[in-house]
Each structure stands twice: as structure tokens, then as C-alpha cells.
Amino acid sequence: MKELTELAIRASFVNCSKGAAQRLTVPHLLADLPWEDLDFLGWQDPGAPDRSYIVAEHSGELIGVELRRVGGGGGRRRSMCSICLTTHPSSGVVLMTGHRARRTGDTYHTVGTYMCSDLACSLYAREKKRVQRAGAPEETLSVEEKIERAKTNLAVFLDKIL
User: Fold this and answer.
1) Separation of alpha carbons 148 and 139, rounded Å
2) Nearest Cα to Cα of residue 159 among 59, 54, 40
3) How far is residue 121's CA from residue 87's CA, in Å, rounded to a whole number?
């Protein structure tokens, strides 16, 4: 992913008002992020723990979406992220829901998917970040295939929001 500016991030949001996009907390020290290892910029709002954001290139455009975290995980079960397919303890995966960008006339105005709670899918796909997986078989896909799979899964989710 190419490095983004705060202005570009704020202008990219498609499922919240312009005012809300101006008020959201953008990550500090954008220049220090590992942009070459990111397929999308994802972060949790420090002032609103139930709110997260994703900004990604999608169909040639920069798209930002506001997401709500549903539930906090817990328990002893393991869960899998729908984007990078990393298996975490249940607290490591949360349901993220977002309003659709345009209303389509139906009664379903939000969509959701299960995602890594730290939104580090790009780093998990690149094996830069790992989860302890006692007894779980290792994947046989190459890192490039894992990256492509995560990009495809994110694109499917963004298509649903758009």
C-alpha cells in the first residue's frame, strides 16, 4: 500500500458523514507505519473502543469505512478471521459491521464480517505477525498466495459495503 496522508484518509470514507470523517481519530505517526507490508490501513478508535476503521485501495479508488465491533470475544473457542483466515483465540476475532455506503431499497443497511481484532490481517498474511497455534496444521500456501487471498476477501467485504 502506498503511504497515505491524513487528508486522503479523511476524504476516503464512504459510509459515514463528512463531519464524522473529520472528527474521527487518525493514527498518529503515519510516516512510521510499515506501508510496504500493508494491504489496508486498519485501526481502532482510542476514544471509542467499539469503533474501528479501514482504508484500502479498491477498484482504483481509496475507500474508507467505519466499522462497529460487535461483542468482545471471550471463552475458550478459537475463531477464524474471514479476511486473512488466521485462527485466533476467540478474543482475537470480532464481528465488524459497517453501514452500507448507499441504501439499496432493502431493509438490510449493514453488513458484517469476522476480522482480526487488531486489524493486522496484512501482517498475518505476510507472516510478520503470528498467533500461537498449538496442534493446528500449518498452511501450505505461499506468502504471496496468502496475501492475494486476504486482498480478495477484503475486496468482497468492501463490495458489500459499497
Assistant:
1) 14
2) 59
3) 11
Lookup: cell for 82: 474471514
Which residues are within 8 A (CB) of 101 and not within 5 positions of it... i.e. 6 or more apart?
14, 15, 65, 161, 162
- CA angle, 66 as apex, 31 and 93 as ends, to 5°? 85
The tens-digit pLDDT sequence of the chain (162 residues) is 999 999 999 999 999 889 999 999 999 889 899 999 999 999 999 888 899 999 999 999 999 999 999 875 555 577 889 999 998 877 789 999 998 886 555 556 889 999 999 999 999 999 999 887 655 667 889 999 999 999 999 999 999 998
SS3 88: strand
Helix (H, G, I), strand (E, B) or coil at 114: strand
Hey, what's the cell of 89?
483465540
Task: Indicate whether this model's pTM tops 0.90.
Answer: no
